Known about the structure:
The complex is a heterodimer of chains A (about 120) and B (about 110).
Chain A: E1 4-7, E2 10-13, E3 19-25, E4 32-38, E5 44-51, E6 57-58, E7 67-73, E8 76-81, E9 90-97, E10 106-108, E11 112-116
Parallel strand pairs in A: 2-11
Antiparallel strand pairs in A: 1-3, 3-8, 4-5, 4-9, 5-6, 7-8, 9-10, 9-11
Chain B: E1 4-7, E2 10-14, E3 19-25, E4 32-38, E5 45-51, E6 56-59, E7 62-67, E8 72-77, E9 86-92, E10 98-99, E11 103-108
Parallel strand pairs in B: 2-11
Antiparallel strand pairs in B: 1-3, 3-8, 4-5, 4-9, 6-7, 7-8, 9-10, 9-11
Amino acid sequence: GAVVSQHPSWVICKSGTSVKIECRSLDFQATTMFWYRQFPKQSLMLMATSNEGSKATYEQGVEKDKFLINHASLTLSTLTVTSAHPEDSSFYICSARQAELSTDTQYFGPGTRLTVL
Amino acid sequence: GENVEQHPSTLSVQEGDSAVIKCTYSDSASNYFPWYKQELGKRPQLIIDIRSNVGEKKDQRIAVTLNKTAKHFSLHITETQPEDSAVYFCAASPNDMRFGAGTRLTVKP
């Protein structure tokens, strides 16, 4: 099956700093990647959708200037949490889809646990 | 946008019994309905999916049914085993995937 990796798997940072999370599709080209946030014992909430070479589409309520998404290649998307605060602490998971079809399977990365002190 | 509701939020069954989780969705344009299993601190793993041109799909002990008219779909797990214990999420996708709130399944030995 398709493999998606994320780096780092966990990160602890001080309030006010920025953190970059990478999402890579290892054995396929992902035309679309998705970023989710998951709080403890809750569901996955879609933050944004990114297509290679174009600007990300953010969900309502997600600040695009705070959560910067770049999808520079067909195998890499990055999420940068800028000026992080304790309330940004969460589990961030990316997923990748090979084709543009909505019926195509999404494969998830292992997630990144962000803790902001 | 798409809104997915999932029930029950928790489900406890005896080993060997069946478990059923139900979801409803709102967007009639949704055409892809996957189910994911997530263990604590790990990534969601796709266990089965169904597309809108199919009413039922089965894979060993797992089956999914879809009723497009009523906009609901269900996950059925038969002969449950303790290792089936996890949180299960349904999702619906008109384009991007929206998840249900999750069901915590506990299978008691």
